[in-house]
Hydroxymethylglutaryl-CoA lyase (Ramlibacter montanisoli), 622 residues
Amino acid sequence: MKQRIFFNEVVTRDGFQIEPEFIATDAKVQLVDALSQCGYAKIEVTSFTSPKAIPMLRDAEEVMGRITRVPGVEYTVLVPNLRGAERAMESRADELNLVMSTSETHNLANLRMPREKSFAALAEVIRVVGGRTPVNVSLSTCFGCPMEGEVPQAEVLAWAQRFADLGVRGLTICDTTGMADPAQVARMCEALQQRFAGLQLTLHFHNTRDGANVLAAVQSGITRFDGSLGGLGGCPYAPGASGNISSEDAIHMLASMGHDTGIDIPRLLQVARALPAIVGHEVPGQLAKAGPSTQLHPAPASVAELRAAFS
Amino acid sequence: MKQRIFFNEVVTRDGFQIEPEFIATDAKVQLVDALSQCGYAKIEVTSFTSPKAIPMLRDAEEVMGRITRVPGVEYTVLVPNLRGAERAMESRADELNLVMSTSETHNLANLRMPREKSFAALAEVIRVVGGRTPVNVSLSTCFGCPMEGEVPQAEVLAWAQRFADLGVRGLTICDTTGMADPAQVARMCEALQQRFAGLQLTLHFHNTRDGANVLAAVQSGITRFDGSLGGLGGCPYAPGASGNISSEDAIHMLASMGHDTGIDIPRLLQVARALPAIVGHEVPGQLAKAGPSTQLHPAPASVAELRAAFS
């Protein structure tokens, strides 16, 4: 039952992307370097998108050029199109992460084109990359669309199949706005593993039911997760919905259960505790505030007195 | 696999107890009355403790006298001693909830006496009550003490056994500061149900790993939970640790999985959304902010234009 679990830290891409104030390139590089020392399998560093579309990540080349790469850690990047893929490969990304939605409405809202157009564009990227760099595809809204509602599991599997047929290395199944429940997660994970046993399968959850969905996925045999330090991130199409799952909370939970996450948790907590100063506000993650469950607290002085009085 | 799940709402006792500003008696009565309409199995209304020890709950008699009792809802109260039990029975409480810790240090810190003294005092309460009102015992720190660390499961079961031998109706097994992990929860729940099949067994979790511990307990067959509206509450001996699980978040998760919680979720969310105004600050619960997963959001206007453009 104890498994090796692989975490992909997405805070500097998915987390930072919705922050209102530009975060300095130096701070991004330092944060990625600190995270590289924590034992992550993968770090999604940035996005090679248009600087106009996402000004926060306009320094993608500089960040990729300045980070210190630690052997054993994969540095992945988001890539929206062919131009982004070329820039990412020039920056020696270890993996290209492509994204589209399984919901037509969400794809139109987020990527401003129908799903078929997105698929054709991403298929062209995969063809041009031609295996020089491994490709992962992140499918959004797989557990429900905040505008359309239910997204049938069969539809998710059909989109996943089309990308599997193109030879991608991995698929990330995203609960983009936190609509999944653990029973649905279990059904999805079982279906995915039956059908795509040869692929890296990663689950991406949001915080609304956080730990429970991670638990349901691990119980179903899933071993790869996205997480965002401090729980940063969110989706503009589901106002009020909470952000990504907090990496440190999920990792601590799985480690407490005896799973091997590969992560140096005290070191990770140090990094997590520096995050509010970087983004300029409190973050939702619980563990950085509470400390790990193994960290004990002093008893109040009265306890010693009472112990003596009653002994 | 679909189960009837029973929730005990503890916000007006456990949640309010650590609030710094006195909450008016009128507001307490109105909140209990609103919660009574939501479908809870039980509401822990207040505590018959000394007004000096917990000034927030000095209005216990008045609150119990003024609430409108809804048939099918049990109104339970915390009782620290014989005097509290007498006051509670005069106030026609449906259940007396007694409490002690399974950790010696936590019992000394919290109740200012050794566990054996607490047990003797509570045993005397149970004897005097003599079955006139059902008794529940809440055992604190069953998944770890923030000062001592591990509390062996065998020790928890031994304390539970001593109260079961005295004829209590139910036991609440509390993760007082949020130290439990889901694997530990599964082991504990299986042992409890084997040994105390005839008792009402309730699990009380804190928010650190929230939904995942509830899920693990339900998977193990547990059907009774404490929850605190908005996630209010906490424990002063674990600084930084998060409060109780949010009732509405846990209930929504279980309902989404198909379990029957008996709760009118839209009505509960209305009550939850009024809570910040009552306590004068934001509360941690996620669902009141995000809305239920069935509540959809309008697509941005651009989607209709894009749909037309691509059709």
Notes: Strands of chain A lie at 6-9, 42-47, 74-78, 95-101, 135-140, 170-174, 200-204, 224-227. The radius of gyration of chain A is 20 Å.
